[in-house]
Amino acid sequence: MFEVIKKGLETSLQDYPGRVGFLNQGFPPSGPMDSWSFRLANIVIGNDPNEGALECQFMGPTLKFESDHIISICGADMQPKIDGQSVPMWESILVKKEQTLELSFCLSGARTYIAFSGGIKSDLWLGSKSTFHKAGVGGIEGHALQDGQKISLGESNAVIGKKILESARPKISQSNNWEIEVVRGPNDDWLNEEGYSTFLNAKWKLQARSDRTGFRLDGPNLSFTEKATNKAPEHGFAPSNIIDQGYPIGGINLAGQTPIILVNDGPSMGGFIVPYTVPSASFWKLGQAKPNDLLKFKEISVEKAQEMRSHQTEICSSRSVS
Fold this sequence. Notes:
By secondary structure, this protein is an alpha+beta fold. It contains five helices and 20 strands.
């Protein structure tokens, strides 16, 4: 068990791949924004890669342990310390009884994952431990961690000193620039070629008004095809309006002239076009991007996106542990 001394900024319990199969009922998958770092954090301490762990964003928590436990810390560098002494990331480490783990603000990236050998004890909600903040379900009492909470852990059976191979770790940007892969569609005939060229050549700034529901972007105006400007009234007034449709997870929703990337807690449907979709294998980059970072998009094929996902799944296995 550990006690939450300081909760950090919306530290929450998530599991991978989250709450699958309920989007049509209004419940998104939730789960970790950076599932690559998340899975590696579990693997290095001998957990199943899907096991529940803590997602910390921008500013991490302070936790006091009531018994010896083996943990790992992966993802953004939040300068982790145990009783004031720096500890390594990307490996299994021991926290002793009465010791305090402290995470500060992130030096690079945006989200850090703390995994616990044996996992975190929590009831499943629709088959998942993942926290869906806006509905107040899943996780620990449906919300982010709160000061003073005591969280129960499973039995720790890991070995200290195991490490994730350097080659298996995601390369978190040390600058404020990210290249994000996208595939065209589903509404790939509403922008004209000039609009697509503008979208791919621009550097889009991530707005501070972004969260686990959607990432809002600032950038140039896009141009549309005749289909978007000369349409039946039921499609809506603006060129980016369309009859309500289902949204893919990762869809780049064009609200007027504002692209919004629909991420882990995003809506299931709405009345805006989706000219591009971010594939699942690129979501980890979104999870590590901070407000005011610059995103440049690179178009790839669906086949390439599937290949990237398969490769990432292969990396997130015990073969990446030394």
